[in-house]
Amino acid sequence: MAGKLGWGTFVSQADKKSENGHEQGSKSLSKPEPEATIPSAPPQSTVSDYEKKKANFIVRTFWTFVMIAGFFAALFAGHIYVVLIITTIQIVSFKEVIAIANVGSRARDLRFTKSLNWYWLATTMYFLYGESVVYYFRHIILVDKVLQPLSTHHRFISFCIYIFGFVFFVGALKPGHLRFQFSQFAWTHMALFLINIQAHFIMNNIFEGLIWFFLPAALVITNDIFAYICGITFGRTQLIKLSPKKTVEGFVGAWIMTMVFGVGLTHVLLSSNYFICPATNLATSILQDIHCEPNPVFIPRTYTSPEFFFLPPGYTLSVTVAPMQIHALVWATFASLIAPFGGFFASGLKRSFKIKDFGDSIPGHGGMTDRMDCQFIMGMFAFLYYQTFIAVRNYNPGAVLDMMVTGLSIDDQAHVLKSMLHIWARDGVMPPAVS
């Protein structure tokens, strides 16, 4: 209404001016009124970019605190909740990686391509989870008549399940699409190796003790934070072309700070049996009283240096630390110098497909794979390092019990039991009358 009224008034005044020439002439000779000054508004694009950055920062910060709170809640709630988190990460990461190369399946009318991808995932997870459960919880499985055959023949059953999918894949091959289908087959198995198989070792770290899971994960996160801080503070030299923002100064500075943090965090974790004790019951939480025989690497030792020429005769240097704190230096070095190349690998993969992120599973942070690319390789290293240099025994009670039940006759089992009773009586564990 206001716009229409103003336009009508303008037209009527113009008509009157055209009819009265004198009026028009006098107005033309009069001094023109100064035009009203309208303040210039900022460019719309600038305001839009600022609002977008502000909104993204708020969302990113909010979900950062949500992930931190969820992680520590699961960590303190018990091993089973940490296992659920790792399972979720595996599934989401696999979905993001597979989605990159699965775009052409609909256009090619290949209906079973996506279903086969999920079949491979289910088969792999059944095999890997079964391996972990059979190894760490045989003492529970062997008392169940239904689970015992599944445990004994687990690998053969897994192979049969895989072969069924393999036969179905070959039967679904279509002329004219063979190159695409075999590319999908190779891509899926690459994703299974880089994500699920490496995550399997992280799962084993959880069962060996939460310190073997939490410490390497914390080292990778710490290194990432200090790489950013050191990079923006005094970073000058580009590290690698795949990631132009990575600098040599940030790389080295993060290495030093991660080693310092790793030694300190290890010292804190050694005071908690909840972190250093292996998982014997998945229902365990931090509120329960847990006891176990600690691994020798958790017990402090005094290390004495030899006599140096620059020291007085008979004078040496000594330091008392837990061996695990020395191992933490090695882990921090791997987390700083090697694990970032998992991120560089992911960056190169994304560049090859011309995408910024693997997905949008985490608001403000991109995909799950973008956050876990370094964690997978670090978790695998932690497991192999632990088994090679730290683990004190290769067989747990479940493994020994499994060998007795499946490999010995009833008479041999009774003989082993009687021998153990005599040994316990000899060592004073029980009265001789009992044996």
What does this entry look like structurally?
Belongs to the CDS family. It is a multi-pass membrane protein. Residues 14-34 have a biased composition (Basic and acidic residues). InterPro entries: PC_trans, PC_Trfase_euk. The chain has 435 residues and is mostly helical. It folds into two domains: 54-392, no CATH class; 394-435, no CATH class. Helices cover 69% and strands 4% of the residues. The chain contains 18 helices and four strands. Strand 1 (238-240) and strand 2 form a beta hairpin. Helix 3 packs across helix 4 (79-101), helix 6 (113-136) runs antiparallel to helix 9 and helix 11 (210-234) crosses helix 16 (368-390). It is flat.
Instruction: Work out the radius of gyration.
Output: 34 Å
- Element string (H = helix, E = strand): HHHHHHHHHHHEEHHEEHHHHH
Q: Separation of termini?
A: 106 Å
Mean pLDDT rating: 83
* Strand order in the largest sheet: 1-2
The biggest sheet amounts to:
2 strands, antiparallel
Beta-strand content estimate: under 5%
Kindly name the structural category: mainly alpha
How many DSSP helices? 18
Shape: flat
Domains, number: 2
Uncertain stretches: 1-38
Tell me the number of strands. Answer: 4
Helix content: 55-70%
Can you describe this structure in just a few lines?
The chain contains 18 helices and 4 strands. With 435 residues, the chain is mainly alpha-helical. It catalyses: a 1,2-diacyl-sn-glycero-3-phosphate + CTP + H(+) = a CDP-1,2-diacyl-sn-glycerol + diphosphate.
